[in-house]
Amino acid sequence: MFKRFGKSSKILSLMLALIMVFGLTSTVFATNQGDGILDIWATNGNIHAEMNAVEVGGVTRYTGYIEFPENSAQDLSQVEIKAAFLKKYNLEVNGVNYQDNMPVDFSKGYVDFKLKNKNGTEFRNYKINAGIKGQDINLTVEFNFENAVDWYRGNYSTPGSYNPPVRDNSTEPAAIVIKRVLEELYPGLHLDNEQELVEPIEIRDLKVKVGTTAMDATKYAAADVIKLVGADSGYISEIGKYGGRYTLPDRIFQRTIGAPDFPEDDYMKDRTGWIFKVNNEVANMGASQYKLSETDSNVSWGYTFDWGVDLGGPEW
Prior knowledge:
- Residues 1-30 form the signal peptide.
- Keywords: Signal.
- This is Transcobalamin-like C-terminal domain-containing protein.
- Residues 269-303 form the Transcobalamin-like C-terminal domain.
- The protein is of the alpha+beta class.
- It has two domains: 32-133, Immunoglobulin-like; 137-311, no CATH class.
- It has five helices and 19 strands.
- It has helices at residues 10-22, 146-152, 172-185, 214-222, 252-256; strands spanning 27-31, 38-42, 47-48, 50-56, 59-68, 79-85, 89-93, 96-97, 102-104, 111-117, 122-132, 136-144, 201-209, 226-229, 238-241, 247-249, 273-278, 281-282, 298-304.
- The chain has a seven-stranded mixed sheet.
- Helix 2 crosses helix 3.
- The protein is globular, with a radius of gyration of 21 Å.
- It starts with 9 loop residues before the first helix and ends in a 12-residue tail after the last strand.
């Protein structure tokens, strides 16, 4: 399931999925003293959250991160916070009305801070987390090709109502790409042999610091092992073998077949791409926004044919 994912957030998360799947242009900005609308700080040390925003086509996702200094004895399950915001709004913290010095549990990761209009409608939702600088996380990063394998072998299904293109003569160019990529990634693999298993590629026992982004952890894990295309721009559009010839791209049908069946400008026709999960849950923010907590142990990138629905996310 998506982490703390409500119906009102689906459009925002769809736009973020489009960053990852299509590499749409985005604007990113950050500040340590709020964003002019909301400022959050921990009373212990008067530490303000670093607020970040990613804007795509006028839709913005807001996140924040409170970082305590190294060797802090702060209990992340009991972080007392204060907030400053415009009087025309009310603030809810995980569904509870805000009060000065209220304790917030950040020990399990991101917490919802929702600004609401006086009539009760939601104005803006912030995802805010906290961590202690310098703490190590023992992390596994994996790359999962299960959906691509199943699609190639004719065994693919999605729990959603969308019906992705099936493998047939018309989609054979996409099948050729999948075969080349996987047989290069897995030496000795014969993808046409359905008895041969294709396990995720795992990079284990990585030591990263609390507060590292999921994207930076992925880049660190992939070094000299996996080729990542687009990671430095904030999204991953293609994945393949490091030093190899082939990659498995987003929009695979648009890239290999194209118009008229898969026109470049119709994103609804091709829902393929790379989506990341943390602790087996699809995150509802970009990988460059997601800062890892001490409870995070696994970052997984999976190939999707249905905008993440086939990876455990909700239907759009």
